[in-house]
Amino acid sequence: xxxxLRGRLAxxxxxxxxxxxxxxxxxxxxxxxTFYNLPATGAEVSLFTHLVVREDAHILFAFGTERERRLFRxxxxxxxxxxxxxxxxxxxxxxxxxxxxxxxxxVDTLVRIxxxxxxxxxxxxxxxxxxxxxxxxAGGAAVLPGTSAxxxxxAQGEAFSALVALGYKPAEAVxxxxxxxxxxxxxxxxxxxxxxxxxxx
Length: 201
Hints:
There is one protein chain. The chain has about 200 residues and is an alpha+beta fold. The protein folds into three domains: about 5-65, CATH 2.40.50.140; about 65-135, 5' to 3' exonuclease, C-terminal subdomain (DNA polymerase, domain 1, Orthogonal Bundle), CATH 1.10.150.20; about 150-200, Ubiquitin-associated (UBA) domain (Helicase, Ruva Protein, domain 3, Orthogonal Bundle). The protein has helices spanning about 30-35, 65-75, 85-90, 95-105, 105-110, 120-130, 150-165, 170-180, 185-200; strands at about 5-15, 15-20, 25-30, 45-55, 60-65. A five-stranded mixed β-barrel has the order 1-2-3-5-4. The longest helix is centred in the last third of the chain and has 14 residues, at about 150-165. The protein starts with a strand and ends with a helix. Residues about 135-155 have low confidence and may be disordered.
């Protein structure tokens, strides 16, 4: 099991990352909660990882903190919640927001996440209620925040691709992106604003 990677951030196209570790490029998938705190491309990055083995693929997921990875792993234990849905949940809200939803039994907020139906949201509330008690103090080391140098148009395109990859229909992704202020330049911030708009609807 690969539990941790440290190397040069070679590319980032949400939700995919490419990290160069000693000349070997690791392809990873990461939630937006991790993307928001990534350094600029070319900088060194440290990430916690979780390997999912399927019949047709081995997928390595990356997280900025141990706390995010712990929640991801707990979500995988919930009935009918797979890696893609767990990634969408961590992209739609951070660990603290998720814990607050479970504490408050806030099903309505959970169903705003792509792929989360009412039955799944209710199951999350029931099955995660006891597990989230283990999430006390924040743990794990976060990567240093960085800036992005994409052009606005390129950032919009990458943001669109990321939203579709997270489960939004293309028309819905376009609608969410149109609601983001044109002055926002980075892919990560555009996605953050779009997801905030989706959560507020």
